[in-house]
TrEMBL record:
Residues 1-21 form the signal peptide. Keywords: Heme, Iron, Metal-binding, Signal. It holds the Pfam family Cytochrom_C. Transmembrane segments: none annotated. SUPFAM superfamilies: Cytochrome c. Residues 44-125 form the Cytochrome c domain. The keyword Iron applies. It comes from the Bacteria. This is C-type cytochrome.
Length: 134
């Protein structure tokens, strides 16, 4: 019975938002809250996702908010994210990205790579000013 009480207290404590303060650099930095830390983590994920896209996709696709794809037949990522939502793309990545175009090789991504890549694609969607699709 005591073990259940301890677990309950730990679970309740885990749900309580905690504000942390960044080291003071003399510039009057604001306190970081859980949502701010989540945003920083999302930015890190997007940065890793861009690196994945740069290594695996940029030889054919334009992966940035501007510019032409090196292969004319390969749509720029900024156009793909306007047509397909994050959840749809994540499902495609989970199943092994296969297209009907014979020149595109099949890709299989790990869960963390899917998260990072979709985080990066979400930044392109936001930069394009289009509607965010789930």
């Amino acid at each position: 019975m005591r073990a259940f009480k301890i677990i309950g207290v730990l679970l309740l404590g885990a749900c309580t938002p905690v504000a942390t303060t960044a080291p003071d650099t003399g510039a009057g930095q604001a306190a970081l809250t859980a949502p701010a830390m989540s945003t920083a983590m999302d930015l890190e994920a997007a940065s890793r996702g861009r690196a994945i896209a740069l290594l695996g996709c940029a030889s054919c696709h334009a992966i940035d908010p501007a510019g032409d794809s090196p292969r004319a037949i390969a749509p720029p990522f900024r156009e793909i994210v306007q047509r397909r939502g994050s959840d749809d793309l994540a499902r495609a990545f989970e199943q092994g990205l296969v297209t009907t175009h014979p020149a595109m090789p099949p890709y299989v991504f790990r869960a963390n790579e899917i998260h990072d890549l979709t985080a990066y694609l979400d930044t392109l969607r936001a930069a394009g000013g289009g509607t965010s699709k789930p």
